C-alpha cells in the first residue's frame, strides 16, 4: 500500500464544509502532489473522531491497482475500529474502510490482469473511505456490467464472509439448518441468500422487530432479537441447528455451542456485543478476551461438535490468503450472474455523512448494507440534533462542532 | 439390545480352559437357555480383569439383528474401557467390544433389509466380543462377497471415523495436508488410505520407528513418534498443515492448533496419552478433562482456525446418528469395491488371547488392526511370561493366575 500516513495534512486546514461545496481545492503541500477527500479517524473514540479532510493522493506501487472510488462499504467492524476495540489497533490518524468499488485509474509496475477504466471492487487494508485507493492486484476483482458500484461495495466483505463460513468452514448441505444473528444486516442477508442456493435449508434469524416485515421472505424463522433465541429455536427445533453464526461473542459462545446438533459447527465471526456505546470502547479487546468462555476440547469430543472462528480481514491481510478469497469471489460473481444472489443496499451516504451512517449501524437501524457514496452530496441538514444518543446512554467525550449534530435524512435507494 | 447383564454366570463356574478345548459345553442355568462364549470384563483395571466365560445367548428384540460373530475389532478405546477411563463408564461385569462381522442368524420382529445367512458387519453398544450379538438393524451393513470377516471387523469403526473426520468434520480437498498420529494403527492406516483417494494430499504421520518400513508407502512424511512432531512438520512445511487428527489429547491440543494453517481444522478423537499403564487408569476421565488446555474462541477468530471433537461411539449410541453413519458406510463400501481402500489387519487372536492382543495394542506393536477371531483356537503357550510390562512401569494390582502370563505368538495373516 502507498505510504499515506505521513502525508496527512492538519485536518483543520483542509476541513471541508459539510455541504461539500466550498472545497479548498488547490491547497497543496508540494507543487505537484494531487489531493483527495478522505474520511479521517483522528483518534479512537466517539463519532467526533471522524472528519472529512484532504490527503495526498496515493500512487500505485509495484503490483498495486489505483482505483477511483465510487462507493465504499461500511461494516460493524468499522465501529469497532473507531473505538479501538480490535486486536493490535493501528496508529491514528488513519483512514478507515476495508472495501470499495470504482474504476481502475492506473496500474503499478508488474500489475497484470486489469485495464484502465475496468469497473472493479476491492479489499483494502484500511484507507478505503477515500476518493482514490491503491491496493494489491490480488485484492481487486472485475465486476459484472450490471452490478452497480454500491452493490459491488456491498458485496465483497459480506458475501465472501458468509460464503466462506457456510461452505469452507462449515459444510452447508441440503436439509441443514443455520442460525444467524442480525439477520437484517449485511452479513445476515448474505447468509440468507446463500442458504437459499442449497435445497431445503432452514434459516433461523434474529432481528429487531421493525425489520421483520422487510426481511421475512429471506429467513425461515425470524425472532425478535430481544427474546431468548435459544428458547425460540428449541421451540421449533428441539434438536438444535447444524450451523450457528455468532457475531455477538460473550456468553453467546456457550449458547451457540449448546444449540448445535451433533456434527454441528459454531462460528464466531464478530463481537458486536462488545460495542456498548458510541465512545471509546469500555470493553477493550483484551477485556473481551477474558469475558468469553473458554471451551474444553474434550467437551467437543463428547458432543461431536465443531467450534471455529472466522476473520476475513485477518485471512486477507495477516495470513495472506488472498488467492483463496479470490476463488470464492469468482464463485460468488457466478452466483450473482445467475441471479441467485444480489447484495441488499440499505442506504447511501456522502463521506460527510459518515457519522450518521455509523449511528445508523450502531443503532441497528439498517436493513442490508450501508454504503458511502463518494460522489454524493450530503443531504441538506434538518432542524436539530437527535443523533449521537448511544444505546448505553454514554455521552460523547467532546461536543461536536457546529452542524455535526444536525440530523440528515438518509438516501434510501 | 437384549438384556444380558443379569444373566451373566459366575465366571469361575464356566471359565474355559485357555487352550479352548475343554469347554464345559452343556452347563445351562435353565433347560432351554442356549449359551455362548464371551470375553468378560469383571471390573475396571488391568488385564487380569478379562476372562473368557459363558453367558446366555441373546435373542433379537424388535428391530434387532442376531449375528453369529466370526471376527471382532479391538480398538485402543477398548483399553480405555477396561481401565474405566471413559465418561460415564457402564457397570461391570460387561462384555466389551463395539464392532464385529459375521453371519445373520435371526431377525427380530419388524426387522427389514436382511436375510438369514447374510454376511454383515455391525456396530454394537458393548457386547461385541461374543459368539453371538444382537444389535439394532440400523447398525448392521451387508459386506461385499470378497471382504473377509476379519477385514470387515477391521473396517467399520476405523474407516468410518477416518472418513467422517476427513470429509464431514474437516473438508479434505485436493492439495491439502493432514497430520495423523499412530499412523501405523487402525485409524492411521484408514486415514492414509482415504487421503490417497484425493489428489495431491500430503500426509504427515508419526509412528514407532520399527513400523516405518512397513507403512512408509502409505504416508508422505513419517516421523519417529518419540521426536517433537511440531518441529518435524515445520521443517518440511513451515506454514503447518490443513488438518490435524489428534488421538493423544493433553498438551497436543495446543500443539495441534499451533500447527494449523489458516482455515485449518484440529480434531480431537481420542486421548490415548491418558493411558499410562496397564492397571486401572491413574488418569480418570475427570482428571483428563482438567489436564487439557481450554481454548478461547476469540483465539480461533484471530487465527481463522477450527477446533473439533469426534467420538463415533457417542455419535452412534448417545446421539442417534445411525443414519448419517449408514450413508458413510455405503460410501466406504463403494470405495472398497473400487479397490481404493482395503482394511489392514495386523493379527488374529482367539478370544482366549484377548490379553495378549490388548498388550500388543497398548505397547503399540500393531501395524493395522487387531482382530479377535471367534473361531480361532488359541496358539499353544510359549515358555514364560514377558507380557504385562507396562510402559509407565506400573504393576498389576493382582497377579494373573496360572497360564495367563505365558506368551503366545500371534497369528499374522
From TrEMBL, chains A, B:
The lineage of its organism: Eukaryota, Metazoa, Chordata, Craniata, Vertebrata. The keyword Oxidoreductase applies. Residues 403-413 have a biased composition (Basic and acidic residues). This is Enoyl reductase (ER) domain-containing protein. InterPro entries: ADH-like_N, ER, GroES-like_sf, NAD(P)-bd_dom_sf, Quin_OxRdtase/zeta-crystal_CS, SV-ATPase_mito-regulator. The keyword Chloroplast does not apply. Keywords: Oxidoreductase. Residues 378-413 are annotated as: Disordered. Residues 45-372 form the Enoyl reductase (ER) domain. PANTHER family: SYNAPTIC VESICLE MEMBRANE PROTEIN VAT-1 HOMOLOG-LIKE. Belongs to the zinc-containing alcohol dehydrogenase family. Quinone oxidoreductase subfamily. GO terms for molecular function: oxidoreductase activity; zinc ion binding. It comes from the Eukaryota. Residues 391-402 have a biased composition (Acidic residues). Transmembrane segments: none annotated. Pfam families: ADH_N, ADH_zinc_N_2.
Amino acid at each position: 500500500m502507498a505510504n499515506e500516513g505521513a502525508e496527512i495534512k492538519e485536518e483543520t486546514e483542509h476541513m471541508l464544509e459539510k455541504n461539500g461545496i466550498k472545497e479548498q481545492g488547490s491547497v497543496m503541500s508540494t507543487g505537484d502532489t494531487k489531493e483527495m477527500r478522505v474520511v479521517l479517524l483522528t483518534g479512537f473514540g466517539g463519532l467526533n473522531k471522524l472528519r472529512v479532510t484532504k490527503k495526498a493522493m496515493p500512487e500505485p506501487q509495484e503490483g498495486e491497482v489505483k482505483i477511483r472510488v465510487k462507493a465504499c462499504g461500511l461494516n460493524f467492524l468499522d465501529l469497532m475500529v473507531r473505538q479501538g476495540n480490535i486486536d493490535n489497533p493501528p496508529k491514528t490518524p488513519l483512514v478507515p474502510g476495508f472495501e470499495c468499488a470504482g474504476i481502475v485509474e492506473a496500474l503499478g509496475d508488474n500489475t497484470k490482469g486489469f485495464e484502465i477504466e475496468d469497473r472493479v471492487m476491492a479489499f483494502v487494508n484500511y484507507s478505503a473511505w477515500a476518493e482514490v485507493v491503491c491496493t494489491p492486484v490480488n485484492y481487486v476483482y472485475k465486476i459484472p456490467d450490471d452490478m452497480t458500484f454500491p452493490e459491488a461495495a456491498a458485496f465483497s466483505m459480506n458475501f465472501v464472509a458468509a460464503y466462506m463460513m457456510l461452505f469452507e468452514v462449515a459444510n452447508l448441505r441440503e436439509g441443514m439448518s443455520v442460525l444467524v444473528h442480525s439477520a437484517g444486516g449485511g452479513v445476515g442477508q448474505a447468509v440468507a441468500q446463500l442458504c437459499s442456493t442449497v435445497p431445503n435449508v432452514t434459516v433461523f434469524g434474529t432481528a429487531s422487530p421493525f425489520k421483520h416485515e422487510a426481511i421475512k421472505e429471506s429467513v425461515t424463522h425470524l425472532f425478535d432479537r430481544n427474546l431468548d433465541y435459544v428458547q425460540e429455536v428449541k421451540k421449533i427445533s428441539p434438536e438444535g441447528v447444524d450451523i450457528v453464526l455468532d457475531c455477538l461473542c460473550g456468553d453467546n459462545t456457550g449458547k451457540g455451542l449448546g444449540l448445535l446438533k451433533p456434527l454441528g459447527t459454531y462460528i464466531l465471526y464478530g463481537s458486536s456485543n462488545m460495542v456498548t456505546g458510541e465512545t471509546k470502547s469500555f470493553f477493550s479487546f483484551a477485556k473481551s478476551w477474558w469475558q468469553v468462555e473458554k471451551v474444553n476440547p474434550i467437551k467437543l469430543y463428547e458432543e461431536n461438535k465443531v467450534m471455529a472462528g472466522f476473520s476475513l480481514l485477518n485471512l486477507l491481510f495477516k495470513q495472506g490468503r488472498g488467492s483463496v478469497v479470490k476463488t470464492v469471489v469468482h464463485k460468488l460473481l457466478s452466483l450473482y450472474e445467475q441471479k441467485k444472489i444480489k447484495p441488499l443496499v440499505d442506504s447511501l451516504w456522502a463521506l460527510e455523512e459518515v457519522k450518521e451512517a455509523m449511528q445508523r449501524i450502531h443503532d441497528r437501524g439498517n436493513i442490508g448494507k450501508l454504503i458511502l457514496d463518494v460522489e454524493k452530496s450530503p443531504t441538506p441538514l434538518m432542524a436539530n440534533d437527535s443523533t449521537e444518543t448511544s444505546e448505553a446512554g454514554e455521552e460523547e467525550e467532546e461536543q461536536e462542532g457546529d452542524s455535526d449534530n444536525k440530523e440528515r435524512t438518509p438516501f434510501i435507494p
